[in-house]
Amino acid sequence: MPQTITTHVADLVAEAEREIETLPVEAAIALHGRDDVVFVDLRDPRELDREGRVPGAFHCPRGMLEFWIDDKSPYHKAVFAQDKRFVFFCAAGARSALSTQAAQRMGLKPVAHVAGGFGAWKTAGGPVEFKV
Questions:
Q1: 87 lies in some domain
Q2: Beta-carbon neighbour count of residue 132 at 10 Å?
Q3: How many CB atoms neighbour CB 47 within 10 A?
Q4: DSSP 8-state assignment for residue 86
Q5: Does the pLDDT of residue 40 top 90, yes or no?
Q6: Do the domain assignments include residue 2?
Q7: What angle do CA 68, 105, 109 make, to 5 degrees?
Q8: Which CATH number does the domain housing residue 113 bear?
Q9: Tens digits of residue pLDDT in 6-33
Q10: How many CA atoms lie within 13 Å of 38's alpha carbon, on the beta-carbon side?
């Protein structure tokens, strides 16, 4: 019997965006480089190699986010224990909206995500670097 999907990813993203802060890309670019802000890149490593990176962003593959945030997890990363603002982004904004919602529900705060993701960042002239 075929599966019947009743909730679509667009519905999940729309629900997340009603609960979280979404930063216009220009506002996100203005936050870049501040000591009290951590940019979190959720993209796959192949995307980073192909498209470039936001300088100074912490890379957290989407599949590890909840495990790295949770201080009781054996996979916890200390970056998520800092008293800073966390700004999540992915390629276009859907994964980061879902990630921001999950992080917020776990208690990480303050958190936001970048509208349009890395694609919008590049289009708006945000700084980009390539790993050599």
A1: yes
A2: 3
A3: 15
A4: E
A5: yes
A6: no
A7: 75
A8: 3.40.250.10
A9: 999 999 999 999 999 999 999 999 999 9
A10: 19
Query: Residue 62 corresponds to which tokens in the numbers above?
Result: 């989407």
Question: Among 82, 88, 78, 75, which residue's Cα sits nearest to residue 21?
Answer: 88
Give the pLDDT score at 131.
Answer: 83
pLDDT at residue 1, rounded to an integer: 87
The pLDDT tens digits for 79-120 are 999 999 999 999 999 999 999 999 999 999 999 999 999 999
* Amino acid residing at 69: I
Say if 132 falls within a structural domain. no
Residue 34 CB neighbours (<10 A) = 12
Q: In terms of Cα–Cα distance, which of 93, 47, 88, 94 is closest to 68?
A: 88
Q: Can you tell me whether residue 51 is helix, strand or coil?
A: helix
| 3 falls within a domain | no
pLDDT of residue 39: 98
* 51 has pLDDT over 80: yes
Overall domain count for the chain: 1
Q: Which domain holds residue 45?
A: 11-123
Strand order in the sheet with 58-59: 21-23, 111-114, 85-89, 37-41, 58-59
Q: What was the pLDDT predicted at 44? A: 96
